[in-house]
Amino acid sequence: MIKKKAVTFKPYERTEYAYDKLRVCRKCGGYTVLSEEICPFCGKRTLTTVQSFAKRELKRSMQSELLFSALLTLLAVFFADTMPWIGIAAAVGIVLTAMLAFAQYRVFEPQLRIRTDRLFARDKDRIRHGLIQDIRAAEGILEANPARAYEMLREVNTLLRNDPIRRLQAELLQTFVLRRDMDLLLEPLIMDGFSPHLAGYIGEVAKLNRELIKESSIRYCLQYEPQIRNMSKGEDILAAVAGAAVRMKRYIQLYPEFIRRYTHKLPEDRLERLREVLSQHPGEFGPLKLEADEVYWVRFGKRNARDASQQGSSS
Predict the structure, then answer these.
(1) Residue 88 domain-assigned?
(2) Transmembrane segments in this chain: where (predicted)?
């Protein structure tokens, strides 16, 4: 049995868009999603966000347009042969340059989005290469610093989502002592294939933070239920997920049979929560209600009756 390590993770920084985490080097044009300040390709401290990089390119382009407009104005003034035409050429040129500057100001944000999209389309191979380098960097410190390796893979998974990365993250997480105060993620780790490490992690998360158990996690457990049941403490994993699912009526409606199969293993608070929801909707969950009532009676009803009898005889 692998001895788990006590570790601490940096809080996961959530961004509005996944690409907000991506950074590009102003010097060599290399991409990375890691938080280091030094470019992993050229070693310079010239990393910036993609949006800042696109904004810089757009400003340069707009400045070139303004300089070209000013140059045309100077040429018009130079070739004007009389003072009135010089005045007219200068005035028209200044007005047109000012109108161009105003138009650039009005369309700056839409143009920035277009420039950012073009940047991604142009550099897609370079971005992928950068992310692969980030993965290799994480693999290089797996033994020396597994917690940092997990953090690095967590960032890469924001943009490059595939089962090998998710599987490696789940495997790493199963070597750590997980705590309730950790900033744990689950949805980004749900993969297509079966992973005992992911199943074990789902079971731990279900006990530490039930709010993280959502439909994708429950569906994963349903899809691979036979494999999970064959694992050591597999039924405990499935029961923990079922216990987390009873916090919402919607999940009870969607997965009543799954919850029913593990009702007998629910802890007292989860069983009471299930019976509370079911009592508010009589006739809607027939088999599940019967199972919950029977488990409650077998586990607690006889005990309550015995306690009441003892209290009556003592009085």
Answers:
(1) yes
(2) 64-80, 86-108
Token couple for 102: 């105003």
The whole domain housing 232 covers: 186-309
Task: Tell me 300's DSSP state.
Answer: I
Number of structural domains the chain divides into: 2
User: How do residues 60-119 score in pLDDT, each as one tens digit?
Assistant: 999 999 999 999 999 988 888 888 888 888 999 999 999 999 999 999 999 999 998 999
Cα separation, 78 vs 7, whole angstroms: 72
The pTM assigned to this predicted structure is 0.81
Same-domain pairing of 127 and 222: no
Summarised one tens digit per residue, pLDDT across range 31-68 is 999 988 899 899 899 999 998 999 999 999 999 999 99
3-state secondary structure of 5: strand
The β-bridge partners of 176 are: 5
Which residue bears the tokens 């000012």?
Answer: 98
Which residues fall within 8 angstroms of residue 227, CB to CB, at 6 or more apart?
194, 196, 199
Give the tokens for residue 273. Answer: 């929560």
Kind plus residue range of the DSSP H or E element containing 23:
strand 23-25
- Cα(270)–Cα(268) distance, rounded to whole angstroms? 6
